[in-house]
Structure formats: structure tokens, C-alpha cells
Design a protein that fits this description.
Elements (H helix, E strand, L loop, with lengths): L2 E7 L4 E10 L2 E11 L6 H18 L6 E5 L6 H17 L4 E5 L1 H12 L8 H11 L12 H15 L6
Parallel strand pairs: 4-5
Antiparallel strand pairs: 1-2, 2-3
Length: 168
């Protein structure tokens, strides 16, 4: 039986998303992309764009599982923290009928280090992009350079491993 899983890397500017399918422990990258908001609009309008993006994905993929993994919102700067948590609140509103499973970015980075055989101190976005490409055996997989799409894919993979739905 094939299951479908949506994963998110939420932010106010660009939210990465990915839909992966799992069939007999084999993962397939079904679709992925960015939900972008217009920085010239008010935060309220930008949050509306994020909400519309998320609900649009759910409409396109109504068969997704009830638990949605999302990158946990830990940031260092006050303004960025407020923006991330505004976007997280909108995500929770858009996914009111779903369970959200927050995945710590440090766990994602540890996964990426294992996949890429990188040293323990490597923590950059490029490593996560490299890990996703290596995991799917596609060194030219098109991903945005800021890593939002790769983060969403990696968050979903870590969640699937944590839940025992795929092998580590």
C-alpha cells in the first residue's frame, strides 16, 4: 500500500514543501516547491498567501497522511523569530484537521551528515541539499539554493524514519 506524506519548512518569505510517497519501504519524491509571499504586502496578507499555498497543496494531494512533519521553529534573532512563528501559526490554522509533528533542524542536520559522510561540525544548508540529492540518487535534482525545498524533503524523510515507515 502506498502512503503519501507532506512535509514543510515554514517561513514568512519562502516556505518549502514536499510530498513523498512510501511503498514497501521505498521512498519516491512526488512533488515539491515553494510557497512564496510578497514582501511588499502586510504580514496579514503574506500569511493569507501562505495559508492559500498550504490549502492548495492539500487540495492537490488529498490522500496525504494525517500527520504533517514541519521543521521546528528555532531561530536566533527576535524579528526572524516573530516572522517564523507567525508563519507557524498560519500553518497550524491551515492544517487544523491534521496533526503536526515538529522535527528539530539539528536532527535533520545529523541525518544529512550521515547521508553525506560529512564531518560532525558541518551544518550548512548546502549539506542538506547534497544529502537530499544523494538520498534520491539524483545529483542534478533542482532545489532552491537557500535550501527551503531540501529542508522540507529532509524533514519528511527524518519523520518517516522516526516513525519506522522507512529504514534509516
Amino acid at each position: 500500500m502506498t502512503t503519501y506524506h507532506l512535509g514543510l519548512d515554514t517561513s514568512l518569505t519562502k516556505s518549502g514543501w514536499a510530498v513523498l510517497s512510501v511503498n514497501r519501504n521505498v521512498v519516491t519524491l512526488v512533488d515539491y516547491g515553494l510557497i512564496k509571499s510578497n514582501a511588499k504586502l502586510s504580514d496579514g496578507e503574506r500569511l493569507r498567501q501562505i495559508h492559500a499555498g498550504i490549502t492548495g497543496i492539500i487540495e492537490k494531494y488529498p490522500m496525504i497522511e494525517r500527520t504533517i512533519p514541519r521543521e521546528e521553529g528555532i531561530v536566533r534573532y527576535n524579528l526572524a523569530t516573530r516572522q517564523v512563528f507567525k508563519a507557524h501559526g498560519t500553518t497550524e490554522f491551515a492544517l487544523a484537521d491534521y496533526d503536526i509533528a515538529d522535527v528539530n533542524i539539528q536532527t535533520v542536520k545529523a541525518w544529512a551528515r550521515r547521508v553525506t559522510s560529512s564531518p560532525g561540525n558541518r551544518k550548512d544548508k548546502a549539506m542538506i541539499i547534497e544529502a537530499v540529492r544523494k538520498y534520491f540518487g539524483n545529483p542534478t535534482l533542482r532545489l532552491n539554493k537557500e535550501g527551503d525545498e531540501a529542508d522540507a524533503i529532509a524533514v519528511t524523510l527524518v519523520h518517516l524514519q522516526r516513525e519506522g515507515l522507512i529504514c534509516a
